Prior knowledge:
Blueprint: H1 5-20, H2 27-34, H3 38-44, H4 48-74, H5 78-93, H6 107-114, H7 121-143, H8 149-170, H9 175-190
Amino acid sequence: xxxxxxxxxxxxxxxxxxxxxxxxxxxxxxxxxxxxxxxxxxxxxxxxxxxxxxxxxxxxxxxxxxxxxxxxxxxxxxxxxxxxxxxxxxxxxxxxxxxxxxxxxxxxxxxxxxxxxxxxxxxxxxxxxxxxxxxxxxxxxxxxxxxxxxxxxxxxxxxxxxxxxxxxxxxxxxxxxxxxxxxxxxxxxxxxxxx
Length: 195
């Protein structure tokens, strides 16, 4: 299927916003990199803000699809899939997850930092992205037999977020495996023993 000019704009803007920041990246740079005319941009998006929201939606879909696929191909058992999350993070931190896009932290943490008001649409998309990940982790925790799958999923999500921040701020991709060790101890305490 042929790519649309809208897709070209969104994908180019995603890469540029992710690597350079939402507010610091101008429309002219996106147009130059994408090869799309300004008139075409405004045919699809009324403003830069609309483009930012489209980029965040695309990244949400891209990231969650990738993360879940990595976890599911790594293991069958829900407990092992939960631990595979951290192996997937390590691939991302090392720049091996998304072709041509290295690791520049979490686009959603970055967006919520740039658009700090809780009611800002970009902040709301970022929060929804994080809620969707917790919902997926909650399902896996329930399948693994946790007494309180929601609480366990929130703790795993906190480890994930801490690993992302540490990898970004300190340039420390091994944060994924450190978090995995802590997650393993949490799962051992919260789940029934393996048969």
